[in-house]
Write a structure and sequence with these properties.
The protein is of the alpha/beta class. Helix content is about 45%, strand content about 10%. The protein has one domain: Alpha-Beta Barrel (TIM Barrel), CATH 3.20.20.70. The strands form two sheets. Strands 3-10-9-8-7-6-5-4 form an eight-stranded parallel β-sheet. Strands 1-2 form a two-stranded antiparallel sheet. The longest helix has 21 residues.
Length: about 375
Amino acid sequence: MPVITHIEDLRLLAKKRVPRMFYDYCDSGSWTEGTYRANSDDFQALKLRQRVAINIEHRSLQSTMIGQRVAMPVAIAPTGLTGMQCADGEIKAANAARKFGIPFTLSTMSICSMEDVARETGGHPFWFQLYVMRDRRFIEDLIERAKAANCSALMLTLDLQIQGQRHKDLKNGLSAPPRLTLPNLLDMATKVRWGLGMLGTRRHGFGNIVGHVKGVENMASLSAWTRQQFDPSLSWKDVQWIKKCWGGKLILKGIQDAQDAQLAVNSGADALVVSNHGGRQLDGAASSISALPAIVAAVGQQIEVHMDGGIRSGQDVLKARALGARGTYIGRAFLYGLGAMGEAGVTKALEIIHNELDLTMAFCGHTDIDQVDRAILL
């Protein structure tokens, strides 16, 4: 086992252990992947002020996100197909997050169902991410199931009315069900650890959907259903309807524009997430970290502002916090850990980010994450 010191180590290990079609699904963007790369690269342009001879004992990274206490201002982002990076992946990631003291967000397009996650985590609260489908009855049912599963917040994704073109997914034959070409089968056969895990679980389909929609009983029928269901007519009226159906904490994900941020405020949501879907939708859009300051300036006093996209270290978390993000989300960073080492890998990713965040905050002369502001940046 190699010595794991940063997220890149986990990425390289995951690349060796996860079949190519599922690894590429995680580690890619749309079209030229320019926005995908900018999400990470633009963090590097932000430079930190080092301070010295300041008492940096008794440091604390504890904070809150939508009123929930968190061990650090980081949550696990909703990611589709998590259970294909590693068998029962959503359950393993949820347990790692629970033990660490941060929120876990389950995707609508998860492999493990929300009922699976609730049962296997002892009923511990988690967040649920919702895509808006044309079948509004199904949406109502999903919301009721999320309530029954003890979900403490609903995250509504607004930027997937249509899907961006992701070249690697098309070339790899990633579909529902996956296209089992000879190259794909040969590649899977070399991933022994992954394959044994998959043989040991019954969870191979989209657990929140299969068996819960009339006529969708397997992966083949699911493919036809999903092609028809993502709703390009989604509007702010739908957001109001979902808020009323849910009745609890609501987070709106996919905000990149100050005008949309104000509409999010007007909707009555509790938080918004500055996000470009990990660079997987509109290629050529601004990176999340570069879009963050204008949105904070426009609405940061009216709504809690979070961000995701490109976070690979605790330094990235600190920089986002300095620019006004109350909370941050990691997607690929935890998926690398999951693909590399299962639940232990997710825990390792969280430990790496926590340690980097703590040390960087100290080097910048701060002892309380809630006191960090733009003054730590050059």
